[in-house]
Amino acid sequence: MAKVLFINPVVREEDVPRHIPYGIALLAAIAQRDGHLVQVYDANAWRQGWDVLEQVCDADDWDVVAIGGLTTTYRYIKKACRIIRAKLPKVRLVAGGGFFTSMPLEIMEWMPQIDVGVVGEAFVTFPEILRKVDAGDFDFSNTLGVAYRNAQGKGVLTGVRPNIPDIDVLPWPAWDLFPLDEIYFKNSANLFSEEAFTSKRRIDVNGSFGCRMVCRYCWHLGTTGDMLIEKTDSGANDVVFTYGRNIRYHSPRYIVDMVKHLKQTYDIDYASFIDENLMTMDAASRGTWLKELCALWIAEGLQPTCRRDGVPHDEHCRGVHWNGTSHAGLHNLETLRIMHQAGCSHLVYGLESFDPLIMKNLGKGSNPQKNADSVDICLQSGIKPIPNIIIGFPEESFDSVRNTIVALKKLGITCKPHFATPYPGSEWYYTYKDSIIEQYDGNLEAFIEDLGDASKISAVICHKFSAMELLGLQQIVHQKDLRLLDQAEKHWATADQVTHPVAVPRQSFNFQRSTAATPLATTDEVAS
Ligand code: SF4
After folding, report:
1. Is 276 in the pocket of ligand 1 (CB under 6 A)?
2. Which residue, among 281, 289, 284, 276, has the nearest Cα to 215 in the 3D structure?
3. Does residue 364 have its Cβ closer than 6 Å to ligand 1?
4. How many CB atoms lie within 10 A of CB 86?
5. At residue 527, does pLDDT exceed 70?
């Protein structure tokens, strides 16, 4: 069986490591299930120098090194791949995750050390790669869902890998391969709610893959059935992202059994649902999923005692609190109250903007009124709503910023908005790719290396405002200062007549506004 080393790249260096990488932990469990010998070097958790990565490379006779993550890990992965290849010239270096799926051909060009990359969902593709490595067969040209190197060393994409239809077949992630007590439990607390802030042993869980909404800034990278592989004009395969969806969620039984296991094994006191959107999943189940989940959570003894007894949360509370993401247009008070009763402490709401035009164009299925109502409805349930606000939308104007500030003042929300950022894989990225490349002097890779968590400005997709103005507007929204906004608009005067749009939308092969979805696998395909 193959000796497999997974590497979790460093991400968000400005913050402590808070999240066990769910995808890597799941793939590690799948590889172990298949009998492979698995180790993890969690570079993000340990935050050690490059010399430690070299020592890890030397530590065993690895057959496969697997590395992957979101695009924001690109800088680390690039350097790590150089080191791995130098230390282990014969190892099969496999890449995957969002950074690879969003631009597989570019990554194969920028990182010549990678042998094969997994595009989209890896649950079937990665075990197939390991089986082939075990058999000494390194021809991946017939393996679906990969980019491999042809005889000339050029990256070639194979056909699309079908999504698995039933995600309950997945094992639980291999949490034991990660430094829980040393790193992750120490960083359990966050500021979003009292229960989250007092958490001492938090673990992330995932209940679903998908979301029916089509927010232009969001990316799913094949996990929602949104990805195809098609031929370009030159006859080469490339990824195409769509509005197609394969909505899949775990059964409440799977989730509750997993959390019970986490409680019994690691004594967790908090579970963070990293699902894209709990409410869109609930809507997909016609409003049954969350209610059943909460009922089972309570029936199986996971309900926090503070909620059971109707008393304030304190250090004597026992049970498992939790949080997730909600949607301003899809929640309702009845479900929220049940969720609160089961221990939900806070929900993140991507409110984004309070401007009608921006909300109409965003694809979120919400509007300023629903946004405003959502705060009140969520607070009534006892759950804390955590609003997320963005500025720098393509249509951003003085009026749209004003609408957002007026609403924030009315609702009593203070926030420092994020900047609209065209992350690879999102509709914005492909629509504005040419403008992004222009803004980075023709160097797309420089943009990828520059990406952070959208609290920092990178490529601008706003048609009216440049980075300089958006930085000022961010401050003005933060201070909710309508006087400064009025002054800025007065100064702007007739500037529209002489300024050039900062970003210009263009059609892209890589994004199709259609509902064509990734095929779903048959049971035989999943088993084989
Ligand atoms: S609702 Fe959330 S998860 Fe769904 S597309 Fe929009 S941003 Fe993405």
Report:
1. yes
2. 276
3. yes
4. 11
5. no
Angle of helix 50-58 relative to helix 74-87, nearest 10 degrees?
40
* 213 C-beta closer than 6 A to ligand 1: yes
Span 193-233, pLDDT tens digits: 999 999 999 999 999 999 999 999 999 999 999 999 999 99
The string of DSSP codes covering 6-47 is EEE----TTS------HHHHHHHHHHHHTT-EEEEEEHHHH-
Best CA proximity match to 203, nearest among 269, 301, 261: 269
Distance (Å, rounded) from C-alpha 267 to C-alpha 312? 21
Q: Once rounded to an integer, what is the mean pLDDT over residues 89-104?
A: 97
Compute, in angstroms, the gap from residue 213 CA to the centroid of ligand 1: 6
Q: Is 378 in the pocket of ligand 1 (CB under 6 A)?
A: no
Could you tell me if the CB of 366 is within 6 A of ligand 1?
no
In this predicted structure, the answer to whether residue 524 has a pLDDT above a threshold of 90 is no
pLDDT tens-digit profile of 385-396? 999 999 999 999
| DSSP per-residue letters across 94-144 | EEESHHHHTSHHHHHHH-TT-SEEE-S--TTHHHHHHHHHHTT----TTST
Total Cβ atoms within 10 A of residue 524: 7
Partners of 230 in beta bridges: 238
- The identity of residue 492, as a single letter, is W
When pLDDT is cut at 50, 70 and 90, the band that residue 528 belongs to is low
Position 522 scores a pLDDT of: 81
Q: How far is the CA of 174 from the centre of ligand 1 (A)?
A: 27
The answer to whether the CB of 390 is under 6 A from ligand 1 is: no
Retrieve residue 514's tokens. Answer: 């259609």
Smallest CA separation from ligand 1 atom 3, residue: 276
Give the position, in ligand 1's atom list, of the atom nearest the Cα of 212.
Answer: 4
Among 167, 139, 360, which residue's Cα sits nearest to residue 254? 167
Query: Left, alpha or beta for 523 (phi > 0: left; psi -120 to 50: alpha)?
Result: alpha
Does the pLDDT at position 148 exceed 90?
yes
Spatial separation of the C-alpha atoms in residues 457 and 342, rounded to whole Å: 39
Rounded to the nearest 5 degrees, what angle is found at the Cα of 374, between the Cα atoms of 369 and 380? 135
Residue indicated by tokens 């003042």: 409
pTM of the complete model: 0.96
Tallying the residues shown for the chain, one arrives at: 528
Q: How far is the CA of 498 from the centre of ligand 1 (A)?
A: 36
Residue for token pair 């009763």: 341
Instruction: Of 96, 106, 237, give the one whose Cα is nearest residue 160.
Output: 237
Distance, CA of 365 to CA of 512 (rounded, Å):
19
Residue to probe by mutation, ligand 1, list 209, 214, 215, most atoms within 8 Å of CB? 215
Ligand 1 atom showing the smallest separation from residue 327 Cα: 1
